Amino acid sequence: MFADRIDRARLEELAMRQATWTGQLGRSELPRLASLLAEGAAPALEATVRFAPVESGLAQINLSLRGHVQLVCQRCLGPLDWAVALDVSLTVVADESDTGRLEDPFESVVLPADGLHLDQLAEDEVLAAVPLAPRHGPDAACSGPAQLGADERDEPGGASRPFADLAAMLKTGQRRSD
Ligand SMILES: [Zn+2]
Predict the structure, then answer these.
(1) What confidence tens digit (pLDDT) does each residue in 109-121 have?
(2) DSSP letters along 30-66, please?
(3) Is 144 within a domain?
(4) Ligand 1 centroid from CA 30, angstroms
(5) Beta-carbon neighbour count of residue 71 at 10 Å?
(6) For residue 178, how far is its CA from the centre of ligand 1 (angstroms)?
(7) Ligand 1 center from residue 120 Cα (angstroms)
(8) What's the 169 CA to ligand 1 centre distance in angstroms?
(9) Which domain holds residue 35?
(10) Ligand 1 centroid distance, CA of 70 (Å)
(11) pTM
(12) What's the number of domains the chain is made of?
């Protein structure tokens, strides 16, 4: 959707006129998220991006993501509906040294040399929020432990979380998703 990369001049222009973009993010925009979902499920998120000027930094990006995705329940390995409702404010800075001047340096993103890629930015935010070991709640239809060992019951902090490792790996981009 937001496939084109935004360079510094364009970003500042968008911020100046406080542009708002809306659109849909699907499988092709969210390949890393898609690889975490239940078989046959494709992500479909409504995205709204608002650009605003800031004193310290190039622009502020207010990102809203809404929708539902089907994760894989780590107890029964069935599909698990996860509601996405994320609102993120990020300050875009020219380089790392600028983050020191921000009130909250963690809510910043450095403008990449080849421009800002909003799809990837949105996907990063969703991946950071995805539960690492999602499980059906007590009221949901969970068909119970599948091929899991006896020590893999309901403890949320269970030591063995093979899919958590996978999710973490996907987050760091060390694994290509096809
Ligand atoms: Zn389940």
Answers:
(1) 999 999 999 999 9
(2) -HHHHTTSPTT---EEEEEEEEE--SSSSEEEEEEEE
(3) yes
(4) 24
(5) 21
(6) 26
(7) 29
(8) 23
(9) 8-171
(10) 12
(11) 0.74
(12) 1
